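Q: Entry one of two.
A:
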Amino acid sequence: MVIETFSANETFEYGKKMGLNAVSGQVYCLTGDLGVGKTVFTQGFARGLGIEEPVNSPTFTIVQEYEEGRLPFYHFDVYRIGDVYEMEEIGYEDYVYGNGVSFIEWAELISEILPENRTEIIIEKDLEKGFDYRKITINEMKG
């Protein structure tokens, strides 16, 4: 599925719509260049889960936990990960195979340990279509 947005607010709102429909145990893998809107999309998703507190990219902590929504929300940013063994150290499997919703930014960096059943979200810019244009591609992966 491909969605096109033309403003940060539209990207946020689409993320929110996905968050409203999220169910326990889902894993979302978010891919896109720096500055493409991954955090805006994630903030919308969190709002859809009922999380009101600010959601920022956990670049220096690898994972942020949010428990106030209708489901626990685990927001990973693995951009600075050295290797997948670091993921084991933080209890990655407990999050991903738990009862919450996991959102993994830069997921392609840990592709070898991603669950077979996941939703891949790719966000891309196309400056020819406008500065705020985003193409959001969603692929359901089934093992």
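Q: Entry two of two.
A:
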Amino acid sequence: MKRRVLALLLAALPLCGLAAEHTDAATNAPDLPDRAQVLDALRSSPTVRAAGAQIEAEEARARRLDAGPHEWTVRLTDQQRRVRTAPDARYNEWNVAVERALRLPGKGRLDRQLGAAGIASAKIGRGDALHEASRGLLAGWFDWLREEAGADQWRRQRDILARQAKVVQRRVELGDAPRLERLQADAALAQAEAQLAQTLGRAQVAAEALRRLYPALTLPAAVPETAPVAVDGDGAAWIAAIMEHNHELGVARAESARARIGANRADAERRPDPSVGAHMARDRDGEERIVGLSLSIPLAGAGRRADADTAVALAEASSWREAGVLRRVEAEAAALHRRTRAAHAGWQSQQAAADALGRSADLTERAWQLGEGTLAETLNARRLAHEARLAARLAGLDAAEARYRLLLDAHRLWPLDMDDDEHGEHDHP
């Protein structure tokens, strides 16, 4: 008994790690947009709304399939009979008939299965639309964060160079520095201001794109700079979680199942549905009254066999597409997990380099202030420190985005399985 409990605990360890990731992402994510605004933005996305409308269409189609393809037919005939042997003999006659084809046993069950498969596929398609909208929102958010981070870093560099330019100007006025150093300081400051203006413009473009695409989002004035979190858990557990919740794979599987049912339905159609009817007639002004039953059975031909063969081939094609999606999704999940871990390792290296170059720039500037170096050396050291710091911030955002993308694909970031019965009006608890 103890061994069994221990085995269960060991098997649950990777899942516990993933659950911890989910809790952290849901409650402690200052570098993500407001969760309530995200859900509103996803619900109001045109693609998500279109997918919700597709569910309604499939529900109506399912009702049509359940009702069957056949309807009652009423036939009315009114005629006048003339007899040559009696020129004055004219008779008013009429005929009324009702007729309907009867769906053979088994076809109705297959039609209901087809309707249910269509609804299931549409619901999974809505989840896929939510997933794709979430991916787009996350990518657009981090595009904006990168431009904001670049603008903030160039703003810091501009302020440092502006301070140095004032020091150089004062020293030139006192005769402690040549005018060349003033030109160098002013040129470096002008370059920083130009770069800042460009990054601010790109940040405004990214922000405007977010506002236009997701009107429910309110962009904050500033986003705190946070260190990216490393991914916990085994890679196989993450891949399994992504495969379990992947909507694209779910859509492929649902369409494959739907195609198989369609093939069975097409094969059943090789047995034609008979039509039965009843008719009543009044001939010779009522001298003759006729009541009868009718039965008609279409004769199956090559066309029905061709339809069945087509449906079988389409079902096989859907199965192969499902296999292709399965292989691709698994490869993408494995690549995403590796990319997430590599991005975090890359950020750590970039951060270490930025810290070292920052200290070097501070020492170089201190030496210049004490008269032991040149302004060119100071500006070069400060430029290298700035580039390293900017690269570290961008690497940190890349690592954070990769981790959030991993959580998103594993359905541990935002709810992507909203209540399908209400077409996403309420979230699962």
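A: Comment on entry two: Residues 1-27, 419-429 have pLDDT under 50 and may be disordered. The first helix runs from residue 2 to 27.
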